[in-house]
Specification:
Layout: H1 15-27, H2 30-40, E1 46-47, H3 49-55, H4 71-84, H5 89-97, H6 176-185, H7 194-202, H8 206-209, H9 222-237, H10 247-262, E2 267-268
Antiparallel strand pairs: 1-2
Helix pairs in contact: 4-5, 5-7, 5-10, 6-7, 7-9
Bound molecules: fe (ii) ion (FE2) (2 copies).
Length: 269
């Protein structure tokens, strides 16, 4: 039988996945996201890229119904598939690092949803905060649990945003995408192209890139972004398998690419 992905209704999708999304929808308000940005975007914790990769050996993403391997294996599988297709070196690197923001769990806590046990502030599909939650979210029945949906400033289609303001002006639910994007934006030696940074920032934004929601808020540049993210998404999603790698086996190949685009210095998280 052909493997299917992202089937959230399958009988074997664990109660934990559904529960993860219930908590995420309930807790990710505009106020929460603003507090997390202030708390986590401090750029004062230096860590080498490969040390960060190694830490993802300790994390299994509870929101992912397709994979129960340590997250570093998913990163290597994505990168290797991009490499096999002879895609550009920067895109291979993006595959390798796109989920590295999950190392937030090293300095996270249960109350913020940023720990090993509570991951609702770190992983899972994200949505825009400050405007209505669309039905294209997984488990849309949880949308009404979000306190912002009872506040008329935040519960209309446009909410706090101007029509056509564009993706980059939106505040998304807090998680590993935005965290890594901001950390790399702050990293002086970063020369990843705009497409690579977009893939990092928006790959979990399923209600937009797969659900087609938020059309009122999109801007002129965003069609270009959509093409980039859909291109990347096939490697994020369809490469999940039980094949495992050792970090040391692949490091020789990726290290020079990492140095080319991110320099040799530690990254400040
Ligand atoms: Fe991700
Ligand atoms: Fe991923």
């Amino acid at each position: 039988m052909e493997k299917t992905f992202r089937n959230y209704q399958a009988a074997d999708v664990s109660v934990a996945v559904r529960e993860h999304y219930r908590k995420m929808r309930k807790n990710q308000t505009l106020d929460y996201v603003t507090r997390m940005q202030q708390k986590y975007l401090t750029y004062d914790k230096p860590m080498d890229l490969w040390d960060a990769m190694a830490h993802l050996n300790d994390l299994i993403d509870v929101s992912d119904p397709d994979l129960d391997l340590p997250n570093v294996q998913h990163l290597i599988q994505s990168a290797e598939a991009i490499r096999e297709d002879n895609r550009p070196d920067w895109m291979q690197l993006v595959g390798l690092i796109h989920d590295l923001g999950k190392i937030m769990f090293l300095w996270g806590c249960d109350e913020d949803g940023t720990s090993q046990a509570e991951q609702w502030g770190m992983v899972g599909d994200v949505f825009v905060v400050g405007c209505a939650l669309p039905d294209s979210c997984v488990y849309p029945e949880f949308n009404k649990l979000n306190p912002d949906m009872a506040d008329e400033k935040y519960n209309s289609t446009k909410g706090i945003y101007k029509e056509g303001c564009g993706l980059n002006a939106l505040t998304l639910a807090w998680g590993h995408d935005e965290y890594l994007y901001q950390v790399l934006k702050n990293h002086d030696q970063n020369t990843l192209p705009e497409a690579g940074m977009a893939m990092i920032r928006f790959h979990s934004f399923y209600p937009w890139h797969s659900g087609g929601s938020y059309s009122e808020l999109l801007g002129d540049n965003d069609a270009k972004y959509l093409a980039w993210i859909r291109d990347f998404n096939k490697y994020d999603l369809y490469t999940k398998s039980n094949k495992t790698y050792e970090l040391d086996e692949i490091k020789d190949y990726y290290q020079p690419i990492a140095e080319k685009y991110l320099g040799g210095q530690p990254i400040f998280w």
